[in-house]
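Translate sequence into structure tokens.
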Amino acid sequence: MIKNEKQYDATCARIEELLKVVGNETPTDDINFIELDLLSDLVADYEEVHYPVKEPELSDVIKLGL
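Result follows.
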């Protein structure tokens, strides 16, 4: 569990490092893949609480022509 912004930033930095060594061909039992997967879930949980994605306003949708 990520408890604060400092931990969040450190976790994001570690994810960036792991993305340099983990690719589509990396086996799912590789230690770097497992770490990346776990850290990504932690970041997603933290962002869901602290950086929620809000529903767009109708006027914004209309402006985009969606």
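Note: The chain has one domain: 5-64.
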